[in-house]
Structures are given as C-alpha cells and as structure tokens.
Design brief:
The protein has eleven helices and 13 strands. The chain is an alpha/beta fold. It has helices at residues 18-31, 42-47, 81-93, 105-116, 141-162, 177-186, 200-212, 239-251, 271-289, 309-314, 321-332, and strands at 5-10, 35-39, 51-53, 96-103, 120-125, 165-170, 190-192, 218-223, 228-229, 234-235, 255-259, 295-300, 303-308. The structure holds adenosine-5'-diphosphate.
Length: 333
Amino acid sequence: MNKRRIGVLTSGGDASGMNAAIRTIVRTAIHYGMEPYGIFRGYHGLVHNEIEPLNSRSVSGIIQRGGTILKSARSEEFMTPEGRKKAVENLKKHGIDALVVIGGDGSFRGGLELQKLGCDVIGVPATIDNDIACTDYSIGFDTAVNTVTDAINKIRDTASSHDRVYVVEVMGRHSGYIALYSGLASGADAILVPEVPFNLDKVCNQIIDANKKGKTHSIIVAAEGVGVDPENNTKIESHSMYIGNYIQQKTGYETRITILGHIQRGGAPTVRDRCLASRLAYHAVELIYQGESGKMIGEVDKVIKSWDLEYALAQKKQFNLEYYHLSNILSSI
Ligand code: ADP
C-alpha cells in the first residue's frame, strides 16, 4: 500500500511560531509513516500547483524563526468554485488527500470548503489577533504581545521624561486581545478595544485625575479596531490621530501618537509560541493519522482538544473582561 500523503500550508497573516508548527507537522508525519508535502503561498499555491515534497531536513533550523518558510498569501481565486476545483485537482495530482491548514479564521473557512470537496482538513490556529474561538491562545499571539509590551516600555521612558501622553495604536481590527494583554502588562492608563464601548471624555478625565495625583505622563493603548467603522467595515484613517488630538485638546497635555505597525508580526517566537505550535501541530497530524477530518485543534485550560471546524467557526471568541477590569482598577488608583 502507498504511504498516505499529507499537505501543509500557511495562510493569511503570518504569525511567529508558524515555522515551529510546520517543522512539527513534517516530522510527526514521518514519525507516523506518512509523506509530508509543502504547499507554498497558501491557497494561491494550491490553485497554482506550488507543491513540493518535504523531509526532515527541509525544516531544519527554522524553529527559532518568525514568518513562514512556506510563505503566505491571500487568494481571491480560491474564493471561487473554479479556483477550488483547480486546488483539488492539484492535490489529486500529487496524491495528497489530507491537509493541515495553519492560519486564522479566513483560512479555516477555506479549509472547510476543501473538506466539502473530499479532502481531509485539520486546522491549526495561528494569528497574532487571538480571535479564534475554541482555543485560549493562537500561535503568534504571545510573541506579538511581548513585542508590543517591549515597545510600550520604551515609549513609557520618553513619556515619563517629557511629561507626555502617548496613544499607542496596536494591531487588531476586530479584536482587542493584543491591546488588552500588552496594556495590562505595561501598566497602561486606558485600554481602548472594539469589544468594549468607551467614552473619550471619561478617558480624558482619568488622565487629568492621575495628573492631579502626581502622575505626569500617561499611556493609552488603542487597538486599530477602534477605528473601524462597523457599518461598512472600512478603517477610518488616523483614528488614533483623532483620539490623540482629542485628548490633547481636552486635557491641554502634550500628546503624541505612535502606530506600532508591522514590527508586531515577526521576530523570533517566544518559548510559549514554540511550545504551543509544536503541541497543536503534533495533535493535528495525530488526528489525520486516526482518520479524522473537518476539525481544528485548540488548547483550552492547558489541555489540547479538537473541535468540529464548522462549530468552532460559528463561535465568537470571548473577550477577557477580567483582564480589562483589572487594568481599569490598577490605573484608576
Ligand atoms: P486569516 O486566515 O488570517 O483570517 P484571511 O481571512 O485573509 O486570513 O484568509 C486567508 C485566505 O483564506 C483568503 O485569501 C482566501 O483565499 C481563503 N478564504 C477566506 N475565507 C474563505 C471562504 N469563505 N471560502 C474560501 N476561502 C476562503
């Protein structure tokens, strides 16, 4: 009997730890007697037949690297039935009948479509936004949040030296997780996220109160999602600019705005992300070995579990209000 062939791809925004996941998938597949194949540039590569066999050495020396050696892309073509038909034909050409998709919820939706066309798909959650339900954390979040916290530490030095207010805009169009964790970890005075309505006047009064108590600088962490117009999903440009200008006018304190941008994605993954990626990826291959399909792997309360992909995609990630309230208490004293 021929060995079972298993494909792996990374899709959507890159996240640190994707390489650690690829490494584990390749080596676990070999461990279970399967043949691993790499699909380059996500679903784009699947539609355009960018598929190559991988071996243990193909994934040497990558566990410590951010980004993804398989590259990532967004593919409009794959969103069409014709594109997906080509993708399935390419999988068949290589004899691949199982696929591990490493990515975010968009990538999982793509995986679900493939599943309907007869390919066994398992999803491994990887997105810095940490917005996927059925897992406490997704690969890349911990590294991103550590990078952001490190950046805010540096901004804090300047804020304190010059008695300024800083509005720091962090990634998260629909998710305030990066803002929440980095804000709590860096002692932010306010955390503005899309999940919780806020009042800018209240934020200004808090800054003025803190000043009266002797705190002459403030850090406000704002998720970029607070600048997204929910009506039509378009980003209102310079929303953090608006917030910063509003605070300066209302409080009279010198206010600066820093948009952290793409330094938040890459960089060497943290130990937490490497371990999470290795564990999730190992269990993904194990599921394929057991003949499972249409599932995602997640870690909940430190236990690795699998969930029906369709069910997981229908769930909304719960926002961590405990962290949010704790940060509010600590910054208001
Ligand atoms: P992420 O996985 O990080 O959420 P995207 O939302 O950009 O990233 O999705 C990555 C890719 O997954 C898209 O470019 C597209 O090719 C594919 N995809 C997303 N949603 C669907 C869908 N509903 N059906 C088929 N493919 C999809």
